[in-house]
Each structure stands twice: as C-alpha cells, then as structure tokens.
Amino acid sequence: AGIVVLVSGSGTNLQALIDAAADPAYGVRILAVGADRAGITGLHRAAAAGIPTFVCRVQDYPDRGAWDAALADLIGVHEPALVVSAGFMKILGPAVLGRFTVVNTHPALLPAFPGAHAVRDAIAYGAKVTGCTVHVVDAGVDTGPVIAQTAVEVRDDDTEESLHERIKTVERHLLVDVVGRAAREGVTVTDRKATIP
Ligand code: GRF
C-alpha cells in the first residue's frame, strides 16, 4: 500500500517510516513526502531516500481554502491508500480530509494536552504520566478518534526537551506499527471508535 507523509520539521518520525518501508515485508511504500515549508530536515530525509517531495505553503495561496484544495491535489497525484501527518503543523481542511484517510501522531495521551505545545503543557500541569497518540484526523485540532496510545512516565527532573525525546522514542514505534496496519488494511471509524480490521 502507498502512503503520503506530511511533515513540518525534523522528520524523525518520517525517518522511522522510511527505515521500516525499506523492508518489503512491511508492505508500505512512501509515494511522496509533502511539507508546508521548504528547507526543512524532513524534506532532506525524503530526498536522501529517493522519495519525491512537494511543498505547499499557505502564503502562496489567496486563502486557506485554496491552499487546502491545492494540497489535496498534490497528495492526490500519488493516489495514496493513507496520508500520515507526522509533525505536520497545519490544520488540514475539508478538501484533504474529504478525499483521504489521514492519521496523525501527537505527543500526549489525547484528549489530554491537545495543540502545538503538548509536552510543555503536560509538564506545566504536573502530569505524572503522558505519552503519545496516533489518531484519525477530523476537522478539529487533535480531536479525531484514537487508534493507539503509549504511556510515558514524566520524571521530576524532566525538561520539555528531555521528555519530548523520551516520548519520540516510543512514538516512532507506535507510528510505524499503526501506519503499517492502517495502510495495508484500512481504518474504519464507527461511533468514534477507530479500528483496523
Ligand atoms: C512529534 O513528537 C510529533 O508528535 C509532534 O512533533 C514531533 C515531530 O517530530 N507533533 P519529527 O518532525 O517527526 O522529528
């Protein structure tokens, strides 16, 4: 099954998918990697692996709707079975979400700590346990049905950086596992329950 991965930053989750996809037994091909900005490490990782890339920047379009439609077309060229948002820092619109099943990885145990500062927020709250979530993307911010989660302990001496590093170590494994199954077998959502057959 083919996937398109969307990134905005360092792309360590993307790299985990690239490494997994190198084994034919994984059964997933990364057809393209898209970003909302140029020059990021995630795009370099894709290029180094010989994967086609594209950039779709909000500021190049008259409004969010036009950007969303353009992004849907750029993804659609590759006809992916699944789209993976792996550290993609833009809210996806109806054109993309109406056309593709999209899964996202988030560095907290949703519905706790949604948004762009999940790790910082968990520490500031004084949470003792946080983790990561892979979920189906819907129109909200980190509100879609949960597919899988892994818990990570928060240590007394954790900084945002140290905790995020530990989360990302388990996040990579969770993402590779879920994306493999979801791309090969599809995701169904019934009554907010996301299942992979
Ligand atoms: C991940 O923790 C992801 O959940 C969050 O940002 C981080 C992205 O890291 N939204 P990377 O770009 O995959 O290295």
TrEMBL record:
InterPro entries: Formyl_transf_N (IPR002376), Formyl_transf_N_sf (IPR036477), GART (IPR004607), GART_AS (IPR001555). HAMAP family: PurN. Its EC number is 2.1.2.2. One of its GO terms (molecular function) is phosphoribosylglycinamide formyltransferase activity. Catalyzes the transfer of a formyl group from 10-formyltetrahydrofolate to 5-phospho-ribosyl-glycinamide (GAR), producing 5-phospho-ribosyl-N-formylglycinamide (FGAR) and tetrahydrofolate. Signal peptide: none annotated. The gene is purN. This is Phosphoribosylglycinamide formyltransferase. The record marks 142 as: Raises pKa of active site His. The keyword Transferase applies. Pfam families: Formyl_trans_N. Pathway: Purine metabolism; IMP biosynthesis via de novo pathway; N(2)-formyl-N(1)-(5-phospho-D-ribosyl)glycinamide from N(1)-(5-phospho-D-ribosyl)glycinamide (10-formyl THF route): step 1/1. Keywords: Purine biosynthesis, Transferase. Residues 3-179 form the Formyl transferase N-terminal domain. It is an enzyme of class 2 (transferase). Belongs to the GART family. The lineage of its organism: Bacteria, Bacillati, Actinomycetota, Actinomycetes, Micrococcales. It catalyses: N(1)-(5-phospho-beta-D-ribosyl)glycinamide + (6R)-10-formyltetrahydrofolate = N(2)-formyl-N(1)-(5-phospho-beta-D-ribosyl)glycinamide + (6S)-5,6,7,8-tetrahydrofolate + H(+). The active site is at 106 (proton donor). The keyword Transferase applies. GO terms for biological process: 'de novo' IMP biosynthetic process. N(1)-(5-phospho-beta-D-ribosyl)glycinamide binds at residues 11-13. GO terms for cellular component: cytosol. PANTHER family: PHOSPHORIBOSYLGLYCINAMIDE FORMYLTRANSFERASE (PTHR43369:SF2). It comes from Pedococcus cremeus.
